[in-house]
Write the structure tokens for this entry.
Amino acid sequence: MKTWWSDLDRILRGEATRLSALRRGSIEIPAGGITFVLVILAMFYGACMGSFAILKESGPSLWQLVASTVKVPALFVLTLLVTFPSLYVFNALVGSRLALVSALKLLVVSLAVMVSVLASLGPIVAFFSASTTTYAFMILINVLAFGVSGLLGLLFLLRTLQRLSLVVPEPETEASEEVGDEKENSAEVKSTGALEPMTDQILGRHVTTVFRCWVILFGVVGAQMGWILRPFIGNPARPFTWFRERDSNFFEAFWAALVSLFT
Amino acid sequence: MKSLLRRVDDVLRGRAASQPWLLVVLCGMAYGAVMGSFAGRAWQVAYSAAKVPLLLLATLTLSLPSYFILNTLLGVRAEFARALRAIVSSQAALTIILVALAPLTTLWYASSANYQAAILFNGLMFATASLGAQVVLARAYRPLVARDPKHRALLRIWLFLYAFVGIQMGWILRPFIGSALAPLRFFRGGDWENAYVVVARLVWKTLTR
């Protein structure tokens, strides 16, 4: 258990994704342990998010706190489940060498970064929950927290991909020890056409494109998944429910909250 | 007392002072007491003396986790201890400057019983002290920035984060000065409204009137 937290620390410090550590084309991190840590951190943020409901004068709703604590980890896991199959299939289609497990590990590690940032913003969100009565403000600050952490997590993913594309796979001559720009350039010179896949690399240009598209998909699915799983914060004017009826979508509601803050 | 003065001197001259947070508590309490003496009520003095250090340290505590994770992600974790010391000594500098300005506040209170003017004057004192603390913080960060330019961006993020939390913290901890007409309370009663919402509504009302 303790090693899992130090693994998370290694990820955050960037030690797990150094070029030398990526030599095998995968991240040497126990995915199960990191997932456990990720769920704990997400539950912590969920509790901070749900604390708005227990501090209300109109009657505290402990169930909302419980619901949010469960829902935030569910949000991340479900979003990953929904978007991972398509990522893997397109990834394999464009000829990436990233195996199923490696791709999953890469995503779990990025999610861990995302959730760590989110959990670190938790105390601030809890403080605003305790000192605010305006529901719309709480929606906006939570969207902001998710936005910032999502941005940093996905940035981490793209940077790690960029590093993976610099790495040359292990089972070759000793010359492959020199990793970096020089090797990259010599590979460029050897290949005949610009559209030819670079076979001696773990990740080609297409793979990075697939991941970039996936990042957008992840953002949109994540936002809408959050909408489906709502309420997270708990509208003080409405009784507690586990889920709300199906209507509208995340982007429309976000705009409505922004407008209602002023009026 | 002598060691305390030496610590104050260390903070102001940018030398490493031991336990600068102690200065935040002591000097913060001193200025808070002066601030709360407006209506001449002993309890308001005690409340405000507790509130000023609480404002600074609670804001610091709430903002630190995010700043720590951000430092780690940007790969400057090794220097976080130095960054933290810089931040705490800038807080100490803020309270030291406030204490130095406290006689002016007393003079102001002695010469005017206008509550609104007292608020404005205290705002001015806090603004002055914040500017001074900025100088201390920038000076302490200079060697860090020289080693890694990422610290400059981090410092800006820190200031934003701290101000964002600090404004709301100051808002909910009101009253600091305590009007002679209002009843004596630790927290101002009524709705716990959010400072940003209040400002947004004010702006909106002004624009659409």
Notes: The interface with chain A takes residues 61-63, 65-66, 68-70, 72-73, 75, 77, 161, 164-165, 168-169, 171-172, 191-194, 196-197, 200-201, 203-204 of chain B (CB under 8 Å). Chain B has a mean pLDDT of 89.
